Protein 1
Amino acid sequence: MPSTEGDLARNRGLWTTVNAQFTDQHADRAWAAEELTWGLFGIPERHLGVLGAVAGLDVIELGCGTAYLSAQLAKLGAHPVGLDLTPAQLATAARCQERFGLAFPLVEATAEDVPFAAASFDLVVSEYGASVWCDPERWVAEAARLLRPGGRLVFLTNSVLATLCVPEAGGFTQEQLLRPQRSLRRLEWPGGGIEFHLGHGDWIRVLGANGFVVEALHELYAPAGAPTHAYYDIATAQWASRWPVEDLWAARLSSGKDGGA
Ligand SMILES: C[S@@+](CC[C@H](N)C(=O)[O-])C[C@H]1O[C@@H](n2cnc3c(N)ncnc32)[C@H](O)[C@@H]1O
């Protein structure tokens, strides 16, 4: 099922607020960063090697926000397109493009219904974008449609464990399991947005059903001495130094659906 207009409006409203409170002010620093990093604790891509060489690749970022990941990919020679649901986020991305002299297309749309032809891209990426805010059955199918045969999907989302340890009212992860894994899928936060989370087995099922072969699942921890994020109260650095706080998936599109090679 595609997200309802109500769900899309709620998430757009949330991200308009987050843009005003945090992401707009933070965007210049993120665009200026000297290297591509992943997640809350900024794990360098050079330590993970999840993307491989990106120069010359056609890339689409689903749920790009202020598009700092796309900006880093452009600096590495890729040809990114940033797609997002929220005009305020895209306005910040456009402002940063001007400031940093780095231009690439920015598209306002939902990642569950992407206005590009099939087989237009070599790489689909999402860092806390569609990977969190869209129904996996919809956006993973869109990623498969958008990719050329052999293309890759790389996405970052909250770890399964972190999702199970967040209190009902939101806030930092605790050291107890606070929700059943069986009930994971669509999560609605009080006063917040609508998110989607799956267990690892379900991610592998959805990826396989859309023709992807999983290449890697990197479970990300906070590095020693890392500070707790100043704005996102997802997990403290102390929690994240003991348990994986984020799941970074890499998958390759095989030629056939249902995992066929
Ligand atoms: C955490 S930001 C991700 C961008 C960036 N990597 C970051 O960490 O700031 C989440 C983004 O997902 C976008 N988003 C939410 N629902 C979406 C949808 N249905 N389609 C596309 N983008 C969506 C929001 O507008 C927001 O900009």
Protein 2
Amino acid sequence: MANEFVSVIKPTATKASNGEGHSYPVLPVRETVLFPHAVLPLTVGRTSSIQLIQSLGEEKTILVVAQKDARQDQPDGGDLYDIGTRATVHKVVKMPNQSLFVFTEGTERVKITGFTQTEPFMTAQCEVIEENDTEESPEAEALQRNVLGQFQTIVTSSSTLSDDLQTIAINIEDPSRLADFIASSLPFLSTTDKQDLLETSDVKARLEKLNNSLAKELEVQQLRNKIQSEVQDSVQQSQRDYYLREQMKAIQKELGDQDDTQKDIADLKEKIEAAGMTEDVKKDALKELGRLSRMNPAAADYSLTRNYVEWLAVLPWSKGSAGEVDIKKAGEILDEDHYGLNKVKDRILDYLSVRRLKPDMKGPILCFVGPPGVGKTSLGRSIARALGRKFSRISLGGMHDEAEIRGHRRTYIGALPGQIIQHLKRVEVNDPVFMLDEIDKLGRDFRGDPSSALLETLDPEQNNTFRDNYLDQPFDLSKVLFICTANQLDPIPAPLLDRMEIIELTGYTEEEKVNIAERYLIPRQVKENGLEPGMIEFPTASVGMIARHYTREAGVRRLEQLIGTVCRKLARKVAEGRKEKLVITPEVIREMLGGIKVRVDTEIAERTKRAGVAVGLAWTPAGGDVLFIEANKMKGKGGFNITGQIGDVMKESMQAALTWVRSNAASLGLDEDVLKDTDLHIHVPAGGIPKDGPSAGVTMATALVSLLTNTPIRPLLAMTGEITLSGNVLPVGGIKEKFLAAKRAGVRDVILPIDVKTNVEEDLTADQIDGMTIHYASRIEDVLAVALPKTEADVVEAEEVREEILAAAE
Ligand SMILES: Nc1ncnc2c1ncn2[C@@H]1O[C@H](COP(=O)(O)OP(=O)(O)OP(=O)(O)O)[C@@H](O)[C@H]1O
Ligand SMILES: [Mg+2]
């Protein structure tokens, strides 16, 4: 019947008279206890109770007593506690559901002394429980304050109790009333506890009990707060991250970033889908992309992951450019771009034909070997053009680190894919022509051996699953056409060399250079320097003069540079107002390029004036060159000396030459004892030429004989060949380069071993041989017969020729 509401004290409560002998109606209540001075609104629904309220006349005093068992619907006297509260009914409100709302105010504690009526409601007699006046001790005072303090703490930290309760409590001075007020205000006290407090008439004892209950409640409350905050903490931690992330998203969205990131990821996904990767690679790429999309764009490794995904996405996994290869057309394009080189072009076309007929052929890699400036790189470019493919040049010169070819692992700071993958990205197709330039200059040190990485790249057996360290995914390189270039073959590691088809390009003769210049170099330089073609004329003789006297090379690079210099000088004149055409005469050349720089023919003529000097021919990575060998003699004891930083093989062939000369002294017309008290010295001057190998044997023998017979050799004559102890002349290599070097130097007579005759006929064109006399020798006597003038007339004639050459140089 009695729901407890917040009870409010009514400070002006009047104290009812002592009720001895008087009977009062008894209102049993469930689960609540009315305290003196407290106002309690009670809902009354039981018929007996309603009748009780309705029977009240002038006198509105009743006894409010709690039921021992709240479940009892029809309690009798025995079901109620003995002690209750006498109360005044202030107001009765009828509720729509027939029940009544009764405002009661407790006045004092009473003890029921006997029931006087049970029907229709109970009435009973009672006696008021007197409260002993509490003596004012500091102890009591402290207790009271403690109770008040705890109550205040509870109210402050409770979310359901009104702060007004504090104010009221502070203003109650009477300890008994304070105890009753607090007891009736606390929702957490059980009915039993409340009843106990009501029954405790001793104020001090009541305060103590209350104090205990409050302390217990405080503890519970603190515990609850602690648990609450702990739970909150753990919830907050995860929520915090979530909120922050959400906030960040919101901020990014505000800034427009979010959209960008999302769009970026969508773009990448599209690219991955379109890249034509193999299923495995695609799966990995999408996995990485998924990781990326879950990452915070501001995170440090976001851009790393993004870069990686981007690399995967943009590589030409299956995009090719090549259509059918038209061999005829390819041939025309090669001819269009390069003069001469017919044999080279033929071999290139052979190679391309095979590739065309067997596209999946695991064929060798082309390798162009030859001196600088002979067109290796530009031939590669031309092949790409002929095939309709992209071209990219990868310079291997000075490359030390394996990672430059194959990349760094992704865990490495600043990691990038290697050159192969980088170039593939650049050309955007998987079948480009890759020119691996200067493969002979590949380095090797503690950072690893790039040649082994290169081997894996080039080897047709392995390169269909080429694995770059950075990508860590197999990439099929088998469609790439690799062309290597080198100046010489020696430094190329054998395993690489094994997989190559070597195509040699030797140097050009002066006529070829002039042709190349007239057809390609001059038009190009004229155009590049912004000149009108009609403004300049290079007569053929002038081009020849530049090639002969201003360059000393097998290729045409320096020649092109000089033509460029001439064009620039003219361009300046044009800019300064020159209108008329400039014809490049020898005078103009001298004016623009300075005096003649190279005069090998005069050098030869000059140096061979003296007996004991012979001209040899040497092969060098730059083509070939002439080589002077000087012999001299002095008084001594038959000693022998050789200088000029030469190798062992050359020293030995020198010994052979000397032995032959000594053993044939008589037939050479020498005094048998001539060498007895003479020391000989052979010197091979000029650096830059590798001075080793046997091919200078005949030259040294000739120099010695020239020295000992005091006969200068014929001018503009050069020779090469190995010599045996018995005087046979053996074949040597590099004939073509040596021959062309001799021709470039202005030599007119060349002595070669008889056994290279077929080489000469195969390798050299009639144009190249034109103007030269080749003498083949099988014995050293044959060499000497050509090299040394025999009769007086011969000597005079040689002198005349020499003078003529020297005069021309003046
Ligand atoms: N036969 C030729 N016809 C037309 N131009 C040529 C010919 N040979 C060389 N050239 C030109 O000479 C220049 C140098 O050639 P390129 O750069 O190909 O030399 P290279 O052999 O690669 O030299 P290096 O070994 O120094 O790299 C280029 O401009 C090239 O076009
Ligand atoms: Mg090159």
